[in-house]
Description:
The complex is a heterotetramer, with two copies of chain A (223 residues) and two copies of chain C (220 residues). Chain A is α/β, with parallel strands linked by helices and 223 residues long. Chain A has one domain (3-113, 145-219): 3-Layer(aba) Sandwich (Glutaconate Coenzyme A-transferase), CATH 3.40.1080.10. Chain A contains six helices and 14 strands. In chain A, the strands form three sheets. Chain A has an eight-stranded parallel β-sheet. A three-stranded antiparallel β-sheet of chain A has the order 6-8-7. Chain A has a three-stranded mixed β-sheet with strand order 11-10-13, with no helix packed on it. In chain A, strand 7 and strand 8 form a beta hairpin. The longest helix of chain A has 12 residues, at 99-110. With 220 residues, chain C is an alpha/beta fold. Chain C has a single domain, classed as Glutaconate Coenzyme A-transferase (3-Layer(aba) Sandwich), CATH 3.40.1080.10. Chain C is globular, with a radius of gyration of 17 Å. The chains are: A alpha/beta (223), C alpha/beta (220). Chains in contact: A-B, A-C, A-D, B-C, B-D. The interface between A and D is large, with 53 and 43 residues. Strand 6 of chain A pairs antiparallel with strand 6 of chain B, so a sheet runs across the interface.
Amino acid sequence: MIEQLSVDDAAKLIKSESSIMVGGFGNIGNPKQLIDKIADGNATNLTVMANDLGTPNVGLGRWVTENKIKKAIGSYFTYNKDVARKYREGLIELFMMPQGTFAEAIRAGGVGIGGFYTRIGLGTELTEGHETKIIDGIEYVFAKALHADFAILHAKKADELGNLIYDKTARNFNPIMAMAADYCIVEVEEIVPAGSLSPEEIVTPFVFVDALVLVERSCCQHG
Amino acid sequence: MIEQLSVDDAAKLIKSESSIMVGGFGNIGNPKQLIDKIADGNATNLTVMANDLGTPNVGLGRWVTENKIKKAIGSYFTYNKDVARKYREGLIELFMMPQGTFAEAIRAGGVGIGGFYTRIGLGTELTEGHETKIIDGIEYVFAKALHADFAILHAKKADELGNLIYDKTARNFNPIMAMAADYCIVEVEEIVPAGSLSPEEIVTPFVFVDALVLVERSCCQHG
Amino acid sequence: MDEELVKIRIARRAAQELPNGSVVNLGVGIPTMVADYLPDGKTIYLQSENGMLGVGPSPTPDAVIPNLINAGRKPVTEIAGTCYFDSAVSFGMIRGGHLDTTIIGGLQVSETGDLANWQVPGKDVLGAGGAMDLVVGAKQVIVATQHTAKDGAPKIVRKCDMPITAYQAVDVLITEYAVFRFDSEGMLLEEITSDITLDELKAITPATYRISPKLVVREV
Amino acid sequence: MDEELVKIRIARRAAQELPNGSVVNLGVGIPTMVADYLPDGKTIYLQSENGMLGVGPSPTPDAVIPNLINAGRKPVTEIAGTCYFDSAVSFGMIRGGHLDTTIIGGLQVSETGDLANWQVPGKDVLGAGGAMDLVVGAKQVIVATQHTAKDGAPKIVRKCDMPITAYQAVDVLITEYAVFRFDSEGMLLEEITSDITLDELKAITPATYRISPKLVVREV
Lengths: 223, 223, 220, 220
């Protein structure tokens, strides 16, 4: 059953040493208020799985500034020059994956697939040391599923059961991360009665969602 | 670019010895007119990938009656007692997979994944002789991606570009099979101008679709 | 005992196992009946593996909705909050451990929790459908079945000799006479009905099981 | 030659390569400009790997739509027929071979079609984003790049010494001076612009390449 939490209470659930998936791509579709509240809190040594780490001191960039992150797994951290500096200084550990392999590994973790074979990245630095396999004459490289303790996500709207819909390119990693964490918290701009969303348009079925955090719509306009 | 074909012309594309994915579950969400037209045609020795083979002489059951099928890959053929008889007589080859592994293998074929590891079916008859692997202490069994020459599918509505939406549980295997064939033909009840479907509600992006076959809505009511 | 009454007794007892608000997949047969015997005030959400969450009750014959069936190919209805998805998402939900419970029938259950329920000997069963996925994927597996086969043969055995659906998969086994729970030490008898003695139960149950010190005798 | 004009020349030539109606992903830089130089009457459909098919042109500054960006994080618009999907579907589309073409920049291209374009030496590039996925997944890979680096160093080389994005991945290489196509025998010069000679081209192109018997000299 879905819980409705305040931003404060939801942020407090995240403890130090947790692994946490964060939705969003280039600061679009990320749960801004949860990110900021966790930045202000005490949790540290987090393992973060996110496409990128925002921009300097914005979005997940705030977690970089506040030294919340022990290790980041994602596809492109270049947007945020603070990450490069901390990486050179050995203050943050990075695991970089091709973006599609990262997305597929999250989905795999969500749907109970242990790992999969892809041609992407074969022979490159990003798959160095990974197992390879020939399937029907084509060489593939192994990628292991990703899973996290928490997911913090953003959606446009939820119904009271927790079914979710998204807005344009703010969808990105949110639907797959919703499946791949033990506890999935979604920041939404609106909660509507069950039955208000068309059964055909629901993107994330409520069974993947554990908690909703309702935030003011005005503060969540992106772009 | 999408083609619009008549049922006749679409059915004629299917040649003997082709592999072909057919959408539907228990005769719901299957492309009834295409199935019937192919049953009436000359193509034979088909390798069919479908959840089931319909019921006796209905849906894919007609292909069983007409001896169109060399081999069927799917999850549950028991609905159709003709299949059992032909199987016992050695007239049809069957490859049976757990339903979720079958679905995932189709999706894998559609998204360029060579194969994956699942816990489902481990140690059972359905995975006899398949490779196993320990990932993080848990034993998994390998499943290889499926791919076909053709997919014949059913959707409720397409726009002129080929974007698709479905109706209720008639969705089932159609969206994943749309990705996993070289040439994807979709039987639809309505074709609307591009822009008529909400960008958020489109289930199958047009890039997966090669041809649309418009059929009378009255003849496609299921249930 | 009338077979229909036996089935109702099993379904009613299984319904008690489900926490309010849980997400459940019901197999064909007795499991399907569980939805009709939920205690007052308890809501569960049904998933159907052909791509639906929030399955409503059967429609009246004149209100059948085209394209709306459950995995048993029976017409169903929507509830407020129903959603649809494709088969890969549906089994992702199942395999990924997102269902609270699956209730499924059984041909044989072993004392280690192995389940055989897909291949009926002597019958033409061609494929397991979604049974293997459900039994491995769901967080809790409840087998709801008559205690013995129609011919009187035991179903609750030391070791399955029918083709296996999944090993060490069963969490709870509910029959018309007993409720067994499986833990790391094996099989535990937790509840027995008032119309059978422990000795009589033992006689129709070849599996080795412990008897709970808190054994409940349920009046029937 | 003015750098902006060089880029436009490359983009305009790349635009000619795209069949009408093709589905294309454009990388940042010169590739993004290709959409602005399509010949009259040609329509292409743009995919953006952050989850959009049918990307429209940039909005005017006062018409920016919240939550609508391309993978280069620039505001874009919808067209008639746009659809959105999650990142796993987006890269499924890419990896599964459903895009006709990706046009992407290059730091180095080898004579065997290897591409290096993600790790700029001496710069803090942390991750390849979607570059590897696109270059391996798309049916056709067009590299659109200036012929030499800013410092004059060759980009079209015998063997890449920068970190590789993908091996034997490039189908067409378009620079301000030349169009090369890759086939099973290696690299073939198909077109040269009228403001450079074959010898001059050779001097700035260390890679080994054949010259097409049907070599086109394009007036510029």
